[in-house]
Amino acid sequence: MKRIKIWAIPAAILLLMLPFVVQMFDNADFLLRIAVMIGIYIILTLSLNIIVGYAGQFALGHAAFYGIGAYTAALLMVNYDVSFWLALPAAAIVTGFFGFLLGTPVMRLKGDYLGIVTLGFGEIVRLIFVNWIDLTNGPMGIPGIPAPSLGSYTLGSNMDFYYLVLVVTVISVLIIRRIVQSGFGLNLLTVREDEIAAESIGIRPMKYKLLAFTIGALFAGVAGALFAVTAMFVSPDSFQYVESVNILAMVVLGGTASIPGSILGATILTVAPEALRFISDYRLILLGLIIVLMMVYKPSGFWGESKRKRNFFGMTGR
Amino acid sequence: MLKIEGLTVHYGVIPAIKDLNIEVPQGKVVCLIGTNGSGKTTTLKGVSGIVKAKAGRILFEGKDLTKVDPHQIVHMGISQVPEGRGVFPDLTVLENLQLGAFIRKDKKAIKSDLEEIFSLFPRLEERKNQLSGTLSGGEQQMLAMGRALMARPKLLLLDEPSMGLAPIIVQEIFKIVRRINEEGTTVMLVEQNAKMALSVAHYGYVLETGEIVAQGTVNELKNDDMIRKIYLGIH
Lengths: 318, 235
Prior knowledge:
Chain B: GO terms for molecular function: ATP binding; ATP hydrolysis activity; branched-chain amino acid transmembrane transporter activity. Chain B: One of its GO terms (biological process) is L-amino acid transport. The structure holds two protein chains of two kinds. Chain A is mainly α. Chain A contains 13 helices and four strands. Chain A is globular. At the A-B interface, α8 and α9 of A face α2, β6 and α3 of B.
């Protein structure tokens, strides 16, 4: 039933060959590092898109989930010698649980209020990272996160990390796509559109909002674990409020409730600050300008919902 | 089928409806008419569970609905078409209709019901791939009704189906209401357009500031002097 799109094959070859192409440049490690961050941000953006784009809940604390995932993986691997392949799902589950915990009280809030509470949650989590020195080593962070190993082979180089992140990202994208293109995704959209109307057809908005928070957090945890193991170091600095805003910008700029949009948004906003490095301090101003112009001229994002595949259940002759 | 006993609903400290008694017998169309703020919509929202009762009972097939959550009430067989239609504007017509069958699992019957809805509202079939936000007001009303019917309700609650629509569309809508009823669905109808409401209903209640001031069969109401003067504009 599912056909592989024609463009998927060259795209896959390109992604697989990329590290070798990159070797031709002097700064190959730097470029690979950016590619790794793109993968991590794609997962983060998609996970936030479930909450913001599909369920329509304006959440501003996504960096907290990212951080919880990173710290969970780091602590398990450094303190308890847990292998990465166990730490990754553990980080996802722990973070998903925190998403559930946060979702339970805040899903009664809407709009700005929800934004403020989730922002507060993000700050609380960051302050815990900074101040619970016994557990998190405070502002000094956790260094020396061991490289994951596959049998006797240790994934230690940037190229290894690239493939690791590529595989996890592709799997995450496929799972999230499956989730949001199912009836569940459609039910999430009804909650975003009109909660009372959703109730009038028997949908329970609370349940769907809570699930969106849980699934969104879960994948942010996956991204966190990937970050921890590829950076080999975590500290509270990586999970500041700015990071939440950054991810939100990727969602909005890419296009809410759109998977290609999220991938595009994450890629562009990860590459742009690096590509604009030559104008040094002015690059953030330029980036800000681009975002403002986008919001004025193309508010639906790079790949907005207008391109959403019509009719979820495929019952039409289209 | 539905029996409202002594229903009282407050918004804050202000009573919206007081000690209401309404009965909806199986297979009939019962209408509530009245002016703005008379409590018609509140009564309907009480039945669908969106507002909570302060006192009184709402019995549906013998079960009290006052403590049941709105989404569970849908499962029990009551569907509401919300005031202002409440379609999901960014979803297509087809998606809206299929979502109406959210509580059902019988895929085959859903498909044949969908065909039935399309024969009831041919306009919807023409526009099934269109985003519902781009439909006209009358088409959105049809879509909202079709969506509610997709749940195969025993009781259909209609909140002001004529609101904001051209007279010719209103007539079409009411023809369909009659047809829905003839096919076996009990209907509770809230309307400001008393003339139209009385043309399809079997039984009517007149509300004023949260209290019933008149009730009876449609013929009794049509011949009532007060109702003729105030609600039907006949002197």
